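Wed. Picked up where I left off yesterday with Phosphoribosyltransferase. The coffee machine is broken again, so keeping this brief.
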Amino acid sequence: MSGPGVPFRFRDRSEAGRRLATRLAHLGDEKPVVLALPRGGVAVAVEVARALHAPLDLVLVRKIGAPFQPELAVGAVADGGRVETVINPDVADFVPESWIGEEKVRQLREIERRRAVYVGDRPRVPVAGRTAILVDDGIATGATMLAALRSVRRARPRRTVLAVPVAPLDVLSELRVEADEIVCLQAPNPFDAIGAFYEDFHQLDDAEVVHLLDEASRTRPTAAPSSNDRAP
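Structure written out below (tokens, as returned):
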């Protein structure tokens, strides 16, 4: 895990993905699965999957916003094969429990809609017994990545690796207990917004995500893991 240093800017998410892939090269022999957090994480993850000759799939995560301030996260819900909900107790104490439950249902519906749009009827890539590499374009608070990691763990991978181009050092330290390995290219302190570390940080739309995933699906490996790689 990288520590504080002189911050630098990536040209775009593709460059960040290629740089990240070089730091993950040691995992190539483990026949990993690369799991992207859309939307921005997909552009990073396709480069990692390509370099490692690994299949690519998604972990869909949605924030549960507060009713009085939607941008304030009450928690997050993720579907990486198993649904996982993470709640921020500091905020949840001020929100009715019934509302949280209703909002979770709404966000799960949106997750289902997005999976249908992004991957259609393509089956999920098997995760059980394999090394799962979770990739995003950066981490800010860590709430969505926490939900994603816990969701993927429910799918019983052999181990999990968190891989991002940039994140705050303190958040990475908190996530250390959730991942078997963390690879981060830079963790400056103090930390600015994720977009400050990219020259091009445009928001990907659904069409761009679908295009990237379609390209990856045409070249991704399809072989199942060997019996030695499967979960007991």
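Quick read: The beta strands are 33-36, 56-58, 60-66, 69-79, 83-87, 131-135, 159-166, 181-186.
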